[in-house]
Design goal:
heterodimer, A: alpha/beta, Aldehyde Dehydrogenase, Chain A, domain 1, 5-stranded parallel beta sheet, 3-stranded antiparallel beta sheet, 9 helices, 42% helix, B: TIM Barrel, 12 helices, 8 strands, 11% strand
Chain lengths: 249, 313
């Protein structure tokens, strides 16, 4: 009797809803698997995909974004993602249509106007070397941002990418580059079309410092250092829009 | 350079037809494959920087919308003169291309800048108007200050085989242009076959076109690399045959620096280095310019540029 030949999975990047290999053709070994090693040009493509996805994702109703994150939790549950991660997704899913009520405001003014402040997503967020992938991604996208994630933890990352890819999440909202933060991070930090950086999970202090410096050229929002709560994570990538609105007939 | 020779093949429709149909047929698969192969060339670093600056100098910055306003045209002209206000070393574009009614506004805005002013004419984009109207359209554009005229051919006449009618029309428009340069739009997306593209190119050149241009930008497909390749072959052969040099302008659908460089490679390989000049090759484009500027910034600063830092139009 012949034994069955195992179907082995190639760990690839997740860019614009697809799973391409690195354009550089490079791989690196992670926990006994060969994983695609992201390059500068993969980062460039991922930012393009994230920017292209931003309009539609931020224009979706908050309720719809919550539903999609909840769907990701469902997918995670059936695919054996850890219970705490699934619970995190559900927790953030619930915030989608509530955060504006908590941190938005109807401001008192001395005139016949409404003055309303509401949170708006910052844009494309580079998440570099997060300590907790689910937490990092969910907190960034729930408010309408799109993200490019750089992480060396390829097995976990690709597993999570497959969860998002099957959750009705539009392609490009989450882009995952498996590779070294030290190699890819600087390209995201200096990229004019990246609006914010999440460095809160980065364990290399020297790298974090240089990324912060590079980010200052384009006045990116930077989240650093640890520890941060879920609410802090969400508000770090929100900006407040205040509008004056005439009152009356 | 050889002396200019007149090809005497335009005596009658029959004679013209015999000449155009006697041109060697285009190997469609071969043309596609050649274009695809030329598109794989890798142009990097200093060569890329040179190509980007050349491409910027070749852009006909175009706005041809029903919603165009004098304000928008003025803004476009300002951008044409100084595409990257933050960088003095960035060259101006070749020309601004607008509808005839906006030529006076653009002429005022471009005065003394060296940037050419092109106007579409002859019932752009369909070309479906009586000849007298088309000629008046052309004269009005030139009188208002356009030094380049982009005309469309009557595809209906061409496709039904009335070549002489098309020839006479181009000739009449060329006369109406006076000093102004005439670009003849073939609208290759409506010509169906590559053979027709070759024939239309020759027809336009015989009638006196200074430039042959692929498309109006209003029909899909617009400019493609194989079609441009065939037109470049035509201008090369025409120069050999008659001694008169004609320019080529692909328009519509060229949006990225990568695409633009593919075109430049094709120009160099097919027509030759002589055509790598804004006088002989142009890009009809609007969004292309921003991508060129972003790539230019990327090469200069070493980091990726974003669209937020460049004007929308």
């Amino acid at each position: 009797m012949t034994s069955r030949i195992e179907v082995r999975k190639t760990l690839k990047l997740y860019i614009g809803g697809a799973f391409p290999r690195s354009e550089s053709g490079r791989t690196f070994e992670v926990d006994g698997h060969n994983a695609a090693l992201a390059s500068r040009k993969d980062a460039r493509d991922a930012v393009l995909a994230a920017r292209a996805a931003f309009g539609k994702w931020t224009g979706a109703t908050a309720y719809n974004r919550g539903q999609i994150l909840y769907r990701a939790a469902e997918m995670g549950e059936s695919r054996g993602v850890g219970a705490s991660d699934v619970d995190r997704l559900v927790w953030y899913a619930g915030w989608a249509d509530k955060i504006a009520q908590v941190i938005g405001n109807a401001n008192p003014v001395a005139g016949p106007y409404f003055n309303l402040s509401s949170p708006e997503p910052t844009g494309v967020v580079g998440v570099i070397g997060p300590s907790d992938l689910v937490e990092a991604i969910a907190s960034v996208i729930v408010t309408g941002n799109t993200c490019v994630v750089v992480t060396p933890r390829a097995v976990e990352a690709v597993f999570l990418a497959e969860v998002f890819a099957t959750s009705d999440l539009p392609g490009g909202v989450v882009n995952i580059l498996t590779g070294y933060p030290k190699e890819v991070g600087p390209w995201l930090a200096s990229h004019d079309d990246v609006n914010a950086l999440d460095l809160s999970g980065l364990d290399d202090a020297e790298l974090a410092k240089s990324l912060e410096e590079a980010a200052s050229d384009t006045l990116k929002r930077v989240l650093r250092p640890l520890p941060v709560t879920g609410m802090q994570r969400m508000t770090a990538f929100l900006e407040t829009k205040t509008v004056w609105h005439p009152k009356g007939v | 350079m050889t002396a200019v020779v007149d090809l005497d093949v335009t005596g009658s429709n029959e004679e013209l037809r015999r000449f155009l149909h006697g041109l060697p047929g285009v190997d469609q698969v071969g043309a596609d494959a050649r274009a695809a192969q030329l598109g794989t060339r890798s142009i990097k670093t200093t060569a890329k920087a040179w190509a980007i600056d050349l491409a910027i100098r070749m852009v006909d910055l175009t706005t041809l919308e029903g919603a165009d306003t004098p304000g928008k045209v003025k803004a476009l002209c300002a951008k044409a003169k100084r595409p990257d206000p933050a960088d003095r070393s960035c060259p101006p574009v070749a020309a601004v291309c607008v509808y005839p009614s906006l030529v006076p506004v653009a002429a005022e805005a471009l005065r003394g800048s060296g940037v050419h002013l092109a106007s579409v004419a002859t019932a752009f984009p369909s070309g479906q108007a009586p000849l007298a109207v088309k000629l008046e359209d052309t004269r009005a554009a030139v009188a208002a200050g356009a030094d380049e005229v982009d005309m469309v051919i009557s595809r209906g006449e061409f496709l039904s085989g009335r070549y002489l009618a098309v020839f006479d029309e181009i000739k009449a428009v060329k006369e109406a242009c006076g000093e102004a340069h005439l670009k003849v739009i073939l609208e290759t997306g409506e010509l169906v076959t590559y053979d027709n593209v070759r024939r239309a190119s020759w027809l336009a050149m015989l009638a006196g076109a200074d430039f042959i241009k692929t498309s109006t930008g209003k029909v899909s497909p617009a400019a493609t690399l194989p079609v441009t390749l065939i037109m470049l072959e035509a201008v090369r052969d025409f120069e050999q045959e008659t001694g008169r040099k004609v320019g080529v302008k692909p328009a519509g659908g060229i949006r990225t620096t990568k695409d633009a460089i593919k075109y430049l490679v094709t120009v160099n390989e097919v027509a030759g280095e002589g055509w790598l000049d804004p006088d002989w090759f142009r890009f009809g484009a609007s969004t292309l310019l921003n991508d060129l500027l972003m790539q230019r910034t990327r090469l200069k600063t070493g980091h990726y540029a974003g669209p937020d830092y460049f004007t929308l139009d």
